[in-house]
Design brief:
Largest sheet of chain A: none
Shape of chain A: globular
Structural class of chain B: alpha+beta
Strand order of the largest sheet of chain B: 1-9-6-2-3-4
Radius of gyration of chain A: 23 Å
Distance between the termini of chain A: 37 Å
Oligomer: heterodimer
Strand content of chain A: under 5%
Largest interface: A-B, 90 and 83 residues
């Protein structure tokens, strides 16, 4: 349910992105006015962040966590239902903002004092959506952390737990620590707007930067909420198709937690040009670039997992390798944004947009689709179409690189982001034209990938229970899993490990 | 020495080149072995059916923790050094006050002369698209002396905006209730854009101003045009 809801919103957000791209194809306003453009931008931002990038992992985690730890269900099934229905209610409200008359134009960030201005749209509505989503996230996160820590089947120690589960645990801990800050920020915003408090309103002694601090204290760590599970999925798939355990498994776990902790210590880099004191910009530039270290460790470990492996180029593996490739570019272009001397020129430019579309747009989406294909037989009991999955990947890679790489260049040339229109500077015009072509190709690629998933539920070939020959617990039971997952709690033997591929072979021989 | 169009853009340029070099090297360091392993260790029937197990290597892991740490700390320190210069205006800088509003800019010069640039002045009323800088009426242009460091004191009348000088590659938010600062210097006379970089509502993308950079003498002449009385009172106030 979660998964389908997120996917639907992903497509809506994708369509708004294409609309944005069409408008930027040429300078001047061709298809929509500035007002409509700003609404499209808001919708794209909010939906992609909260419904796709965060929501999709909740669906993965909810489904896979009990299977991977040998539990019949999550610890608090009713809380889980509540969490979904809050998510659903927020979804309905978000859809209502698409109707005329309810438009929110203040972007997903909702910075005051702009958001206190009439021009911004209904703030109460925005705050309600954020609160519902926040409550949903908190309930979900607490539920899954408790499940993970208390309901692991005998034999599954923390050391033997899947790396996906480690990343998922870290993600949920970030949610639990971070969501209250955001909830506080939007509540204060609400009170400023409707009850005439003055937290953020400078004309009455408030400080607009306070909101930015609170907002980014959550909203920076939340990018790791989005990307850590993607790292988890990458680790699972790289291990499975290299037929060996992840290289440096312990350091991977430490890297996950290093990223989670450092993630809370870098939010000022969103405010390098906002007027905060100079010394704090320098301090945060050091913490920001340091986060590149654990991230680098993860990439090097993935690459060395290939070393002396027996690599199978299945569709999920190809998606994941593409995700690593995209993540590498996204990561390397993230480092300079942590350097004030560089950031001063590209802050709030298309360079930033390109950076996070490489990381959160492409690496995350490719990992998610890799995950869809990988666990597809588990979810549905059927196989997807190999051919169309590969066609989709080729289109996605060509389209997104054409699109986002040129976005870096236009950003380096100074094009500010969130612009419906721009002056006819020659190189900008050409770069925007090509980007729009790239975006179209990307759009077609995504459409093919999604249609493949939809049609294969009906027309796909029947899948084996364990098509990838993985010893990870979710593959040891029939696909799709029976209603209560496990008839009795499994006891995992001493020599079992989710990445011990010889163990599985031995089991086969015994039979 | 090659001619520099604008300060502090030259420092940005050096920072950019240093980063680009390091980024390309790191990219190759990851990509080349990655591609090599993918080819060498691909599964082939009868040849590479089984993986060999190399679980970890302390030496390698320490290596790729320490080297990146050194690299990023070097980058941050280099940035620190440049940023001090990019951030702090030279002492002989001329101060102008910039006040942002929805949706435009007010420039105030030391003698009290003011220039307004707002969205109606930079767009063509018929097509609603951007004018070229040379088509904008001179009365809406902010005159800037060439070869002179300009310190900008920035604030806003309503919401947060961000003053971005395109050729100088420097931006700083204009926050209501605060005064922020930045500096730039453009050496070649001509007309340049300044944009708003912080989302501020409907006409955000049209919140631009034209900076008309002129030789110093011409600037002095322009500055004192119609300002005789104000000029004396300004001097008395000093």
């Amino acid at each position: 349910m979660y998964g389908v809801t997120s996917l639907v919103f992903f497509l809506i957000a994708g369509l708004s992105a294409l609309a944005i791209r069409m408008e930027l194809y040429q300078p001047g306003l061709q298809y929509m006015g500035e007002d409509t453009y700003n609404k499209a931008l808001t919708i794209h931002g909010v939906l992609m962040q909260f419904w796709w990038a965060v929501g999709i992992w909740s669906s993965f985690g909810n489904y896979l966590l009990p299977l991977m730890i040998g539990a019949r269900d999550v610890a608090f099934p009713r809380l889980n239902a509540l969490s979904y229905w809050f998510f659903f209610a927020a979804s309905v409200l978000a859809l209502i903002t698409l109707l005329p008359g309810n438009h929110i134009r203040m972007l997903w960030t909702g910075y005051p004092p702009f958001s206190l201005n009439e021009n911004a749209g209904p703030v109460a509505f925005y705050a309600l959506i954020i609160h519902l989503l926040g409550a949903s996230s908190l309930a979900g996160a607490i539920n899954l952390v408790v499940t993970n820590l208390t309901m692991r089947a005998p034999g599954i120690t923390l050391k033997k737990m899947n790396l996906f589960l480690h990343s998922f645990l870290a993600m949920n801990v970030i949610q639990i620590l971070g969501v209250p800050a955001l909830a506080g920020a939007v509540t204060m915003l609400l009170m400023d707007k409707y009850f005439h408090t003055a937290f953020f309103d400078p004309t009455r002694g408030g400080d607009p930067l306070l909101y930015q601090n609170l907002f980014w204290f959550y909203s920076h760590p939340v990018v790791y909420v989005m990307i850590l599970p993607a790292f988890g999925v990458i680790s699972e798939i790289v291990a499975t198709f290299s037929r060996r355990e992840i290289f440096g498994r312990t350091s991977m776990i430490f890297a996950i937690w290093g990223i989670a902790i450092l993630g809370f210590m870098v939010w000022i880099h969103h405010m390098f040009t906002s007027g905060v004191p100079d010394w704090i910009r320098i301090v945060f530039s050091y913490t920001t670039v340091l986060i590149g270290v654990p991230t680098g460790i993860k990439i090097f470990n993935w690459i060395f997992t290939l070393y002396k492996g027996s690599i199978r180029f299945t569709t999920p593996m190809l998606y994941i390798l593409s995700a690593i490739f995209m993540f590498l570019i996204g990561g390397l272009t993230g480092i300079p944004l942590g350097l004030p001397a560089f950031d001063i020129a590209v802050h709030d430019s298309h360079f930033v947009v390109a950076h996070f579309h490489y990381v959160l747009g492409m690496a995350l989406t490719l990992a998610a689709f890799g995950g869809f294909y990988y666990w597809y037989p588990k979810y549905t009991g059927r196989m997807y179409s190999e051919l169309w999955a590969k066609v989709a990947l080729v289109l996605i890679m060509i389209g997104s690189n054409l699109f986002y790489f040129l976005q870096f260049i236009v950003g380096l040339e100074g094009m500010p982001r969130r612009y419906a229109d721009y002056p006819a500077i020659e190189s900008w015009v050409r770069l925007h034209e090509l980007q729009t072509v790239g975006a179209m190709i990307l759009g077609i690629g995504i459409a093919v990938a999604v249609l493949n998933l939809v049609f294969s539920t009906k027309f796909g070939k029947k899948a084996e229970d364990n098509p990838w020959q993985s010893p990870s617990l979710e593959w040891l039971i029939p696909s799709p899993p029976p209603p209560h997952n496990f008839d009795k709690t499994p006891h995992m033997p001493e020599d079992w490990d989710p990445y011990n591929y010889e163990w599985l072979e031995k089991q086969h021989k015994k039979q | 020495m090659k001619e520099v169009l604008a300060y502090p853009a030259n420092y940005w340029q050096t920072m950019y080149e240093i980063w680009l070099f390091i980024a390309v090297v790191i990219y190759l360091v990851v990509f080349i072995p990655g591609a090599y392993f993918l080819v060498k260790y691909r599964y082939r029937k009868g040849v590479n059916e089984k993986a060999q197990h190399v679980h970890e290597s302390k030496a390698l892991e320490v290596l790729w923790t320490i080297i990146p740490t050194i690299v990023v700390i070097y980058l941050a320190t280099q940035s620190f050094a440049f940023y001090r210069i990019q951030r702090n205006a030279p002492e002989n800088a001329m101060e102008i006050k910039v006040t942002a509003f929805m949706w435009g800019w007010e420039f105030e010069y030391p003698n009290g002369k003011k220039v307004f640039s707002f969205f109606n002045s930079v767009i063509n009323p018929e097509t609603n698209a951007y004018l070229k800088p040379e088509e904008v009426n001179d009365m809406f242009k902010a005159y800037i002396p060439a070869d002179t460091p300009i310190k900008v004191l920035c604030t806003s009348r309503d919401v947060i905006h961000s003053f971005y000088v395109h050729p100088a590659k420097v931006t700083e938010d204009c926050v209501p209730g605060r005064i922020t600062h930045m500096w730039f210097q453009i050496n070649k006379p001509g007309e340049y854009w300044a944009f708003c970089r912080e989302y501020c509502g409907t006409q955000h993308s049209k919140m631009a101003a034209v900076l008309k950079v002129v030789p110093k003498e011409e600037f002095e002449k322009w500055l004192n045009e119609g300002m005789q009385t104000n000029n004396t009172s300004y001097k008395q106030n000093l």
